Amino acid sequence: MKIALREVTKRYGTTIAVDRVSLDIGDGELFTLLGPSGCGKTTLLRMLAGFAAVDGGEIRFGDRRVDRLPPYERNIGMVFQNYALWPHMTVRGNVTYGLRLRKLTAAEIGRRLAGGLAKVNLSGLEDRYPGQLSGGQQQRVALARALVLNPDILLLDEPLSNLDAKIRVQVRGEIRALQRDLGITTVYVTHDQEEALSLSDRVAVMREGRVQQVAAPKALYERPANRFVADFVGTNNFIPGVVRERADGHAIVETPLGRVRAGPGDVALGGACVLAVRPENVALDGAGDNRVEGRIRLAAYLGNTLRYDVEMAGGLVLKVDVGDPWRHELLPAGHGVCVTFPAAATLVLRDD
Amino acid sequence: MTSDGTLAAAPARRVMATALPALGVALLWAFLAVFLVYPLLRVFYDAFSNEAGRLTLENFVAFAGDAFYRRSLWNSLLLGLGTVVATSILGVAIALLLVRYEFPGRRLFGYLTLIPIISPPLVGVLGFTFIMGKAGTVNILLEDWLGLAKPINFVYGIHGVLLVETLHLFPMITLNVVDALGRIDPSLEEAAESVGSRGWQKLCTITLPLTTPGYVAGALLVFIWTFSDFATPLVLGVHDLLASQAYLDIVQFVDRRLFRMGLVISALMVALAIVFLIAARRYVAIKDYSSLSYSRVARRRLGPLAAAGAVTFLSAVMAFSFVPYLGVALASVGRGWSMTPFPVRYTGLFFARVIVETPKYIVNSFLYSALAVVLCIAVGVPIAWILARTRLPGRDTLDGLNTLILAVPGTAIGIAYIRAFHAELPWLGIPLTSLWIILPIVLAVRRLPYTVRGSYASLLLVHRSMEEAAASVGARGLRSFGDVTLPLIWRGVLVGALFSFMTSLQEASAVLFLSLGGWETIPVGIFAFYIAGSANEAAALGVILIAVAAVSVLVINRLAGARMGGMFG
Fold this sequence. Notes:
The complex is a heterodimer.
Chain A: E1 3-12, E2 15-25, E3 30-34, H1 41-49, E4 56-61, E5 64-65, E6 76-79, H2 91-101, H3 106-119, H4 135-147, E7 153-157, H5 165-182, E8 185-190, H6 193-199, E9 202-207, E10 210-215, H7 217-222, H8 227-232, E11 237-247, E12 250-255, E13 258-262, E14 272-277, E15 283-284, E16 290-301, E17 306-312, E18 317-322, E19 336-341, E20 347-350
Chain B: H1 3-47, H2 58-65, H3 67-100, E1 101-102, H4 106-112, H5 115-118, H6 121-132, H7 137-146, H8 158-182, H9 186-194, H10 199-210, H11 212-228, H12 231-235, H13 242-251, H14 256-286, E2 300-301, H15 304-333, E3 334-335, E4 345-346, H16 349-357, H17 360-389, H18 395-407, H19 410-420, H20 438-461, H21 464-472, H22 477-506, H23 509-514, H24 522-531, H25 535-560
Parallel strand pairs in B: 1-2
Antiparallel strand pairs in B: 3-4
């Protein structure tokens, strides 16, 4: 089932929580709304679910306009951030509640219950109460409860945020696999960019109620549309500058570090911009289109990487990742280094 | 203080630091053992033994063999269940309106629903008889206007007890359900909507079941209260209830057999309270549905018609609940109020009688209640501290005893004290029951839970790390308590203590059993005056009691906001 949003708006008093959002989500796509808290992503999801009224615009599921329908007429399945399992019902009670409301036969209910629990690997726990389950298990019950109704759309509101880091990665993989098997159109809300990148077909980054960029994870990470996206998704070094020249697919930008060769970008000659270059694209004493002298200020050992804060002339600090600390001798603070980064990995963004 | 002085005093300080708290804890336990556990055990012993002191079941056999007691037991159970049903319907409906809907006057009604529960029950009954009695205002008006030949019996009889208890106790349910509703995570209801549940279906399968822990606690208290209340039935002329019988059996000191029956009933009440308490604790323990939710289900604004309905319904309930106070107020200043809808002349005579001529009611009430509160604080605050801050062995028992007090009826405690403390004290040569100090003691024990709960709740709010932070910058034990903890908890302690004070003033059941000539408190006076036919003096005392309750509640509200629900759970 496709989802189409047109100019969808939500106001709370004078603040605009969701501002004229238009999106097209494809059939069977796992689409993620990503953004910091307060960006409107949850509000948008709740409008899709029908828990928040739409103040302007329209929402369609397939050909059906749903924005005036109550939640129970939208044929959605929703997984809540805290799972929202009914504590007074067993796993069986939780999963079959919606089926019982639909007055299905006992045999059909039993069949769907078994099928739903099998999908999430919870068979055998039918008679437990939510309080007797681990966080990961509760999460799966919530997922099964949403899926047994064969919804057109699956809505997930930060479903992994209450789980431990290890389990989170595991359940993340399970959700992705299940979603792909079922081919169900899914809207996923998260503030965790790693989560968004790892499981989405496409991601919409939101800020202050507006969509900043819609892109597949790789494109989002490698070609952020603006400074906010570049900053929110992953880590970036930002260098302010002014575009001076454009030649053979490069821009030459005047910065506090001197003239820097960067990707073309679309900022006009003479226009103020900000350069974004990721720490993993910056090297120490390597080859690159741009070379700048600096001094180590701080080293942070992270196990799989080593991150240096390198202070450049003029006080600007660049983060530099060394991807293979095993082979690298830790440099002391104050040590002089030469920092290099390629033009292709240096983005020219409008300064917003 | 110099550091040298500190060092020199250190060993002595260390001894004090371990010995004093141990002594304090021992005293707390001794207090509870002597004034709570022993009397309750004593009642059981008496119920299971004969005059010769031998253990036997013959008292229970006699009880079961007596058709009158069997009928009383049956009536009491029916009355209890009936009141639970009636208060549940009323209480849950009001709670839902107050929490889930928006309509004019919602806040005001929220306050008003509290009033019946904090007003003295004895006064309530009295008021009903003035307005709704056979010669009460309503019947007179009906006779005058409609030519009614025979007055309608609104209140005398078991239906009247049901009416009075329901109007008095429904806030117990409302408070608990309001509290529980407020703690339901909105996503639980949204989840229900997302799978297709709505309206009544959602209410009955999701919302109400989620309130059960709070509701069960309220319902149990309503049942126990009704089951053990003897003053209301006796004022309304109902004798064939267990509690009424217990009172009548005990206060006649002539027939030993009847006296034993009173003890058996008292033992039954205590057993019932304990069983209910354990059941409730089990139930609530396995079903803790509260969640730390940051949001609440949004209130729905009622349409004009529905809002009018809600306001009418609540106004009607409130009007009914306030009928007694109107009646009591009129009776306290009215003369010649018979066969007329309202008094024909007004006088301050009755107030003069109960305030100036015999000031003992007020003096005794305030003296005993004040002493009781001092005891409550002395015992209750340390208990709250132990519960909130320590892992002392016996902590759970302490908590259990504290809750048990809420469940054990005053009737049973009163009877238990009569039996437990009628032996002569060593040295003094007279029994404790002959010393007026027994009244403050019984009041303190009865009202201890409020002080404990008030203090406990506010202690929980003071995070331990705040005290540790004080310690880390150099404040020692008592110093950090005085500088950090006390300023943060005194409100809670005061609210709990005030609640203990107010309810001590209103305590009728236990005191009625123990009061001797000269010790009469206001409720005892009300009961005695009314039974003796001096309804006006009883009403005057009632007005005084209501006035004190009203002032206390205002102060409590100022200090604590309207969150008194925790006091009754």
